[in-house]
Amino acid sequence: MQLIKQQKHKFKVVSIDNSDINPAYTDCFTAIFIKVGFIIGLLLVLLQISRGSSFLFFTFLSIGLYFYIRYKKNQNRKLEKRLKQLIIHNQLFTERSLETVDDKGFVKKERQLINAVYLAYLITDEYIIIRAKKRGDLFSKKVSDLDVELSATIQRPLYNKIDKVTHTDYYFKKESEKRLEVGTTDTEECLDPFSIPLSTSYTWNVKSQPHLLLAGITG
Fold first, then answer.
1. What is the 8-class DSSP label of residue 202?
2. What pLDDT does 210 receive?
3. Burial bucket for residue 217 (CB in 10 Å: 0-12, 13-18, 19+)
4. For the chain, what is the largest distance between any 2 Cα atoms, rounded to a whole number of angstroms?
5. What is the rounded distance in angstroms from the CA atom of residue 178 to the CA atom of residue 200?
6. How far is the first Cα of the chain from the last one, in angstroms, to the nearest whole number?
């Protein structure tokens, strides 16, 4: 399998902080800001409608819909959120409990993050690559065995895994392999009598070296 040259691509790091493990601070301020802005824009639009200004109506409506749809379709944010949930749900972090006193004299308990797994992702034309970094801590062994958890998170079967000293890379194909059925292949794809298409990405050539070796050994 020919893998991409990763040195030409930049992985985006994903990890968690105190706001992710304290429910009181887990609100997504960006999402709230966009939704509030959309509502305010809609109210302004309705106000302009009441004044008979159709130009401002379509302007505010177009701007509001643009930012709202753009946020909803941001697949990278969805992937980052799922990776953070994987870290939290699988306890891939260490924490301690702290008690603080606010200005009113109330005791408040907070969870303080000590250490957490660092994941990174890279999306290419063909693959979704998740990199789990090894930092010499108690999670270094666990990050090499996230096959099932990452498959469920990415919602795709694991295509390949490369385990190195500093990290482990998990490869997932963006499009699933499809087996070809007899009679469904095009005539143009079968012009070579020695090539047998097995799937949308793989073709077996009976003249390839492994076949010649087997034929030579078995006679």
1. -
2. 58
3. exposed
4. 91
5. 6
6. 29
